[in-house]
Amino acid sequence: MASALELRHYGHGDLPEIRQTLLDVHADAYADQMSDEEFRKKFPWFVDHWGGHPEFSCVIAYEGDEVVGFAYGAPGREGREWWREHLDPAPEKSRTFHFSELMVRERWRKTGASERLHRALMGAGWADLGALLVDVTHPRVQALYESWGYRKVGEDQPFPDSPVFAVMLVGLPLP
User: What is Dmax (Cα atoms) for the chain?
Assistant: First the structure.
């Protein structure tokens, strides 16, 4: 149950300590898809890319000694808000937290663990907006984020071998 979870916060300097944990949870969460999807095999690169950001933030949930899941991301850099092209006009506020990953191991799905991880990661409150991408072939995941206040503002395929993603924002009134 999500109420028994311990949430631990980590930053950029902690990546060497938590990297393997993130990779292990990813491998567990996508075990049935890893051989099929070349893009998913690039996850270690994404962990290193995001973890290399000086303001990288990660929350890992534990139940006892077991890792339940994690969420991570980093603040967007001024002038590099990739989501702006999907809004016309773009909002004046631009302090954006880019929410990169949220993974919960199967045993703890539908327990509230995802929402607790999301709230813990986004709870600092310094950002005006939160931005994330959701694979368009996962409408239930998109609906979950919508239940937390996110709105789809467009679609994007950031890499030639990546899925098409719904671009989602939270923190401003959207059409």
Answer: 48
Task: Please state whether the peptide bond connecting residue 163 to the residue before it is cis, i.e. omega within 30 degrees of 0.
Answer: no
Q: What is the pLDDT of residues 124-170, one digit of tens each?
A: 667 888 999 999 999 999 999 999 999 999 999 988 888 899 999 99
Helix (H, G, I), strand (E, B) or coil at 157: coil
Question: Which strands form 151-156's sheet, in the order they lie side by side?
Answer: 6-11, 57-63, 66-75, 96-104, 129-135, 165-170, 151-156
**Alpha carbon 104 to chain centroid distance?**
11
- 137 Cβ contact list (under 8 Å, min separation 6): 163
Handedness of CA 67, 108, 44, 15 (dihedral sign): negative
- From residue 89, give the alpha-carbon distance in Å to each of 82, 157, 173, 174: 14, 22, 12, 11
User: Distance between terminal CA atoms of the chain?
Assistant: 36
Which strand (E) or helix (H) includes residue 133? strand 129-135
**Summary mean pLDDT of the chain:** 87
Q: How many CB atoms lie within 10 A of CB 40?
A: 17
- What is residue 74's three-state secondary structure? strand
